[in-house]
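Before a computer can learn anything about folding, someone has to put a protein's shape into writing. The three-dimensional part falls to structure tokens, numbers that each stand for a local backbone shape. The protein below has been through that process, and both of its lines are reproduced in full.
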Amino acid sequence: MIKIILLAVLLNSSTPASASWSFFYAVGPNFESPGSVRLRNNDWEVGMLSSSGYGFDKIFPISEASYMAFGPVLTVNSLGFYGSVGRKGKMFWLISYRMELQSIVGLNGYAQGSGLLGLTIDF
């Protein structure tokens, strides 16, 4: 079952999630701000992926409103890996919301998991 899901995600990943640039700003756990600040182009994001990690990720759309993302990250004194799942939806003309569950695991043993709630502005 897992192999079928991964195959479906990889086959679906060849189509870009959006064909424009966007800016994402989110609050993290306990409404700390900023929880995440990212710049996105097509399926790629770069910036502060979480409050403790900087890096970039590739977004894999699952459906029109759901996605997964994976990428390398520089976290507390170590390199690591970032993974997330989330939902997005339109609010206004160029503004949409995103809810995301994310995790970061560093090669030095550091681990963090949290949720984000934020806004995306397309331009």
